[in-house]
Design goal:
Length: 468
Amino acid sequence: MTVDEKTIERIVQRVTQELSGTMKPSGETTTLKYLYDDVDEAVNAAYSAQKQFLKFKIEERKRITDSIRSVCMAHAEEMAEMELAETHYGNYPDKLMKMKGAITMTPSVEDLAADINANDGGMAMYEHAPFGVIGALTPSTNPPETVIANAIMMIAAGNSVVFSTHPGAFQSSCRAVELVAEAIEAAGGPRNLVVSLNNPTMARTTEMMNHPKVTMLCATGGPGVVKSILSCGKKGIGAGAGNPPVFVDACADIPKAARDIVAGAGYENNTPCIAEKEIIVVDSVADELLSNMVNAGAYLIKDRFIIEQLTKLCMPKADSPNKELIGRSPAYILSKIGVTIPENTRIAVFEAPADHMLVMNEQMMPIIPLVRVKDAAEGIALSCEAEHGRRHTALCHSKNMDVVTELARRIQTTIFVVNGSCFNGLGFNGGIGPNALTIAGPTGEGPTTPRTFTRKRKLVMVDNFNIR
């Protein structure tokens, strides 16, 4: 980062003076500078700010996104604690890792290099221009992180943003919006480049999405949310639900596969949509995999009555997980049916038939079913069935590249991780970046970058500028 010391000092002073003590207990109305009760007022403020922002050079945009990184990193621990206290999803160490990843690994203006095509007829240059005002809907599973990452990308692309945050993560999301907005102004950016709706409701969010000055929409959530943004007649970026299978082949490095699965499925107590939701393993190595998973921190449930109770508790009906248990620890969840396990257990695993409720439906809990299959062909087929064509994420542990290739070709997911853990797909723990928390599978953009939030413009120079 290249933020100068005077800018950092100014940022720290403003944040300390203006933000200390502003957050109220969950459930109370929060009065902050960048929250708007009136949708039209919020959009018009962002619209005016974006018109000013059009005059900013790329290097000035970078100074602003660097400022956002600096401010948010200084408050990363605070935001992680606030998010955990508000949502009860996940755990603090994983949440802090995700927060820091969103801050440091989200790409900025370096993603916007122009594309050029030149021949004897002249030159064509393709620039990546802003859309204008983006309406952004954020989830309860990665609330401040999504605000920060999307703000960095959207601002790098030259846009302004009106956030409509999830009501279940309103306070922590507001904190992120305010930190981002303060960082923008401290670095010389326009006021109201990032704003948010106060006490967002479905009606107010719908009004924002249909506002004529909002020219692009971005939403992270279930099928209903994605459908709503695509029905507005505007460019929409949709990050939908997933149900990532992890297939373990007979030739896999079983001890490593076990460690990776436990780490990934236990990451943030399985709340991320990229996390391993069901294990599909060739029968000949299933026992070895389970043994190694237990050694890696999993708890194996064998009692069929407990499994039946747990299934009903976690998912009372198909594709409808118990919201009270999403993102809670295995020990907490099992305590609800009178089963005590060590508090430090990463995941609970149990064997299940292929059509089991928790195999075929995304649960977002560290309660992971394991299905035995006779061979790779059956494993590939079941992986595709469990993923339901959502094209989100899938994982494969195998040393046979024919198997890896066949599964990748058939399942067609946006993220496909081979011999690793789900968070490697986000760039964490040795994975290849950049980081993306908005994974646009339904609309096809994939892991989002600043280019995602631009429109392509073509400049043609005929019979000119050919110097070969």
